[in-house]
Amino acid sequence: MAGREAGNPADDTSGAGVPPAPGHPTDEAPPPVPHQAGSPEDKPGPGDGKPGGEAEQADAPHPHPHTCTCPVCPRGTRAAHREAQAAFRARRDALAAGEGLPAAVSYSAGASRQWISDELTQAAREVGARARAEAEGWYVLLWRRTLYVVWGTVAALFLGQVATAFTAGWTAARTAGLLAALLGGGLLTGAARLHGRRGGVLAPVIGEDNRLSTSRAVAALWVLLTAYAVLVLAGRLAFASGDGERDTLIAGLDLARGAGLVTVLAVTCAVAVVVRRVVAVRVQGQRLQKAQAPRPRAADLLTDDSGRAHFADTQYVLVSAVAVVYALVRLARRPDQLPDLPWGLALLVLVSAATYLASKYAEGSRPVIHAVVRAREAGDLDGPIRTGDDIEIRGAGFLPPSARTPDRLARMVVRIGAVHVHVPLVPVPGGFTNPSDTTLIVPVPVEVEPGKAEVQLVSAAGVETNKVTIEVGD
């Protein structure tokens, strides 16, 4: 990502300083940031605790115009977050250049490092709060946009039906298809209103890590296809006039004709359930490091947590999308039965699903400490580790891809015996030199008793490493 220090994977674009909140367009005092103490959202509303409470809050009329940039509006929270990021980068680069350092701590390298780290930690926590406020406002906008997509699809289907009806004529199957789309759009609209604070229509496919889940999205795609096909058959059955036509439509639901579709639907849904269980067990067992993303993105369907393209996810989405398109064409050609998915194509989807599931079992590793040594600067003498010295911890996996924001880095802790030492943030222009994914440096406080002491790291994702024993001299 842009702004990273060479050799250091820490992402600087998610940091922030402590800038003033953007000005409110009127003369009144700006309202507090959402979900902070004393904010209006903390007070119980008429919809709290009720099934439709979230939808009522999302639909509540806002007293500010859509261009308002106050901290309580979605656009205002976005502007506040961006200003905070810019302020953090400026503050970090200034401290890296030695500017703004108090004279009281400038005499000691250790005191200067600790003061700089504390300043950046406080600023990083502030931007984390701004980022969460922006995400909440973004969800309010997202659930409405998902409805635009749903009804835009219905409108596109209607226009396509009208365009092709000029040559082929209007049939009962076209009417049934439009009615099925309208009914499905209405159901999705209701679901979106109930989950307005969680992304609307996208709420079922957003995982616990706040990313779009590939397995859930693929399963949802097949569920929607199957539901639409059944609604089309139900609509045709309702308009059927003769017994023979009714018998033909009922026979279209036979398992012999829809076996391929039913098999693929069952397997993709099972994969979604199994993957959720596998990830949950690995995270709880500290065998997989995961941290929440700021908000879901469409690219999550094709990438891993670091944003790099992932083969297993990409092939699963592509193969399933091709198979769904084929099934839709078959439904358009034969609207009197379930799409007869050929076993060759169904087997291709099953192989793709098996590949995706195997990748989920194979991925993930916990952070590990390889060695702990005394950090030696130029001109310093070699010697044993004593209190007041710096130690360098070498290993791997200290900074997982999903937890490289400054507010996450500020939470890293090293246990030296019974003493918990927060890892200091050491800035350089464009990033941080400490901590990094493979090394980090912390001081040995005077509270550590001489003798053997176990060193253990709590990574940026909150996962504990193995323990390494060191000898602390007098």
Summarize the model shown.
The protein is built from 10 helices and 10 strands. With 474 residues, the protein is of the alpha+beta class.
How would you portray this structure in words?
This protein is an alpha+beta fold and 474 residues long. It folds into three domains: 64-168; 205-360, no CATH class; 366-470, Immunoglobulins (Immunoglobulin-like, Sandwich), CATH 2.60.40.10. Helices cover 47% and strands 11% of the residues. The chain is built from ten helices and ten strands. It has helices at residues 53-59, 74-96, 109-168, 172-194, 214-239, 243-251, 255-284, 311-333, 343-362, 406-409; strands at residues 368-374, 385-386, 390-396, 413-416, 419-422, 426-428, 431-434, 439-443, 451-458, 468-473. The strands form three sheets. The chain has a five-stranded mixed beta sheet, with no helix packed on it. Strands 1-3-8 form a three-stranded antiparallel beta sheet, with no helix packed on it. Helix 5 packs antiparallel against helix 7 (255-284) and helix 8 packs antiparallel against helix 9. The radius of gyration is 28 Å and the shape is elongated.
Give me the secondary-structure topology.
Blueprint: H1 53-59, H2 74-96, H3 109-168, H4 172-194, H5 214-239, H6 243-251, H7 255-284, H8 311-333, H9 343-362, E1 368-374, E2 385-386, E3 390-396, H10 406-409, E4 413-416, E5 419-422, E6 426-428, E7 431-434, E8 439-443, E9 451-458, E10 468-473
Parallel strand pairs: 2-10
Antiparallel strand pairs: 1-3, 3-8, 4-5, 4-9, 6-7, 9-10
Helix pairs in contact: 2-3, 3-4, 4-5, 5-7, 5-8, 7-9, 8-9
Keywords: Membrane, Transmembrane, Transmembrane helix
Biased composition (Pro residues): 19-34
Transmembrane segments: 148-170, 176-196, 217-239, 259-279
